[in-house]
Amino acid sequence: FRLDGGNLACLNNFLIGYNGNGLATLESGTLSNEWDSGTFYISSSSGGSGTVTNYGAEGNFGKIIFGRAANGQGTYVQNGGSITGRTDIYIGDISHGSAVLNGGTVGANGHFRIGNAAGGDGTVTNNGADITGQHLIMGYVSGAAGRMTHNGGTLNVRETLQVGRAGGVGAFDVNASCTTRNMVIGTRIGDPGVNGTGTATVA
Fold it and tell me: For the segment 143-161, what is each residue's pLDDT rounded down to a tens digit?
């Protein structure tokens, strides 16, 4: 799939890597869905894997999930343009998901989770994008692992940045500007609960 100008809008879901392998190149234009319950998936089911490279298009979706298919891989590379989740963004939902952000903007109005559920393994490398979110969480629950390496650009978390939550394993490597209201490294939910494991390295 190639988007090079114009406007493509779906009512519900847009899927790259559904029961097979998918590839998309976004040069320019806009890609969106109308329903907030709809999702932009890269690697969505039955071992499907997908790769999306964005050079300058604008993406706007109800939810964004990279890495949902068991044994699949969802890969997103952004060199320019933007992508926005009107609710949440999950990188590594129940399988492998990765995002390499070299430029442009990324926004989540709700949660930005890296390693969301059991089996989820997410990585985000930011080399030059401007990222905003309400909550940023690496390793959301037991069986999930998430890592963010923030090398360049900006990172603005309006409420809470959590590294390792409720049994999840999180890692945060910080080499560029980062702002947040609250930062929590390793936490559990409930009493008794399962402790999360978090590490943060600031250079």
Answer: 999 999 999 999 999 999 9
